[in-house]
Request: fold
Amino acid sequence: MSQREHRIFNPAMECISRDELHKIQGERLAATVKREYENVPVYRERMDAAGVKPEDIRSLEDLKYLPFMEKTDLRDYYPFGLLASPKKDIVRIHGSSGTTGKPIVSGYTRNDVDVWSEMMARTLTAAGATSEDIVQVTYGLGLFTGGFGAYQGADKLGAMVIPMSSGNTQRQIMMMKDLGATILCCTPSYASYLGETVREMGIDPKKDLKLKAGCFGAEPWTEEMRQRIEQLLEIDACDIYGLTEIAGPGVAFECLEKNGMHINEDHVIAEIIDPTTGEQLPYGRHGELVFTTITKTGMPMMRYRTHDICTLTADKCACGRTLARMGRIVGRTDDMLVIRGVNVFPSQIESVLVGADGVAPHYMLIVDRVNSSDTLEVQVEMTEDMFGDTVSHIENVRKYITAQIKSVVGIASKVSLVAPKSIPRSEGKAKRVIDKRNLH
Ligand code: DLL
Reply:
């Protein structure tokens, strides 16, 4: 057992026996499918086409008979075509930018907002938060779910919330210091930038700040990035996961064991499937994460394909929770880069860069096609120290990184060490890839 003190917001649910949980999931699934079939024409059509009736879905094992939903469905039935409740019962809309013009939107009833707030209260509690804490919300407050999700969870806990929203780094740090924020909620890329700026301003996090933990998510990050943020800000950095279509942040969260994210399985059912065949894969195997909501009433989702790739485990966690855990997201089936036939995830390259001396983890991957062959350029910023170093030392570091990328990812790349602060910083989700191959 770990020596850490673990706080649990709702022990009755978070530590429920797996048998009892599966029973509840089966009952909630059956009720949700009935609601979907009766209220949403597209669910009825798809289930009829698959030859499944609501009465066929009686337990968790029947999940596999249900059809999948995709992000394209949210576009096709935009904005209200997937509502399972009357529009007057929808109290909130959130959305996220898609790869094409219109955002995808999801409608939440009062029940859905309450469920999501509880999921986020569990998330903050797992990172050590209580009603005594001061939570700085640096996720954008707006259509994006990050800001409101973190705000609602902290509010449910009875903590003090500083709803900063994103941006204005100096001001974030001033408020953090003056108000004594103890918990930080933002993207990991921004947490790392905040940490660097804190150090540049000569602030000693141990002496001058009161931060103890952060709930970071909304984009893929690595174990190396966790260590960097923890060192820069002297905090526990916990990974949190969510998506607009399901509930926003808090769908899954790490406890202080930092060993995978507990899924709020009394509200969602998680599966891992083979992205090509759609077959369910056993726990422990990497595949595409699929969620089915079982308490959502506004816009419930049936077997929603997230395109996120990870593993699941139901092994016991030292925190005492029985909720299954998802591993770090290693990439997405759709932003996985295929370069000269090799699957490449930006997170693999990030793990090399964060571990290398002389460079800061601000990078951009530029993929192109030259003479019918794919090319990968990795632009990474030098640290200030390195920038003033000898040409031969810089060249050695460049060669070292090139060799590491080759050994981790399996393909050759061109590594360019660029000047400090020359790669644009992001306040929300970081943009790490420019793929020029589709432009030719
Ligand atoms: O990013 C919700 C969120 C806000 C989660 C704040 C965590 C913290 P969307 O904008 O709809 O919602 O984007 C969802 O972001 O399918 C993943 O690809 C990615 N993502 C979210 N959390 C993580 C994470 C919010 N912890 C999409 N690790 C998801 C890796 C993540 N990727």
